[in-house]
Amino acid sequence: MTSLFDLSGRTALITGSARGIGFALAEGLALAGARVILNGTRDDTVAAAARRLADQGLDARGRAFDVTDEQAVAAAFAQWDHDGVQIDIVINNAGIQFRKPLVELQLSDWQRVIDTNLTSAFIVAREAARRMIARGTGGKIINIGSLTSEAARATVGPYTAAKGGIKMLTRAMSAEWAASNIQANAIGPGYILTDMNQPLVDNLTFDAWVRSSNPSQRWGKPEELVGTAVYLASAASSYVNGQIIYVDGGWLAVL
């Protein structure tokens, strides 16, 4: 059975992976045998994250570029082409949050969240899929959604719209790329203990709501997403396509 989940010989690009969920996913795929490419916008933080994995004896390297910049993404893939690096697995994890009521929201803030959380997934996956299709060897696209791919919450309108879009973008990818042996799926994390969510953890009222509204009565940990990511990146999910798997402790299962 272990061969079903073995990622040896595969190369995975994980966007937004210098810390938090992205780093945990990169580490998990590397432990499963993949060579991983970490990404972020700053050279120093990406390099430091890659060193943390390399120090564990894992095959990791970093490349900093802005995933919302179409030219920067194209340049990164062109460089990998030149270097003979074939991306077999993409995890579109890069994302930001911006909390403000919709009636107070500036268009520029709306656009920034949509570009980072949704449009970047299209740009990166498109570049990867073009090459996967040309090689004829298939591949794996894993998009990171959210509970807000399914349910809304006040003050996070653009994030909700973007993550809802991730669910449907994943299905669109599946509809177009499944015949090329590309499986496109998504993971919908629940409330996870990350740097981005730390202000919510520190808010006693919100923290109490998370714990009371979840059957598991706790926040999730980034490493609890790794098993699902390895499954979706591996041969074990070769006939799973266009799905979003919620890793939320049961939050969406209850009223």
Describe it for me?
Helix 1 (20-31) crosses helix 8, helix 3 (70-83) packs parallel to helix 4 and helix 4 (107-135) packs parallel to helix 5. This protein has one domain: NAD(P)-binding Rossmann-like Domain (Rossmann fold, 3-Layer(aba) Sandwich). It has helices at 20-31, 43-54, 70-83, 107-135, 157-177, 198-202, 204-213, 226-233; strands at 11-14, 35-40, 60-64, 89-92, 139-144, 182-189, 244-247. Helix content is 44%, strand content 15%. The radius of gyration is 18 Å and the shape is globular. The model has no long low-confidence stretch (mean pLDDT 97). By secondary structure, it is of the alpha/beta class. The chain has a seven-stranded parallel beta sheet with strand order 3-2-1-4-5-6-7, with helices on both faces.
Topology:
Layout: E1 11-14, H1 20-31, E2 35-40, H2 43-54, E3 60-64, H3 70-83, E4 89-92, H4 107-135, E5 139-144, H5 157-177, E6 182-189, H6 198-202, H7 204-213, H8 226-233, E7 244-247
Parallel strand pairs: 1-2, 1-4, 2-3, 4-5, 5-6, 6-7
Helix pairs in contact: 1-8, 3-4, 4-5
Features:
Rossmann fold, seven-stranded parallel β-sheet, alpha/beta, 255 residues, 44% helix
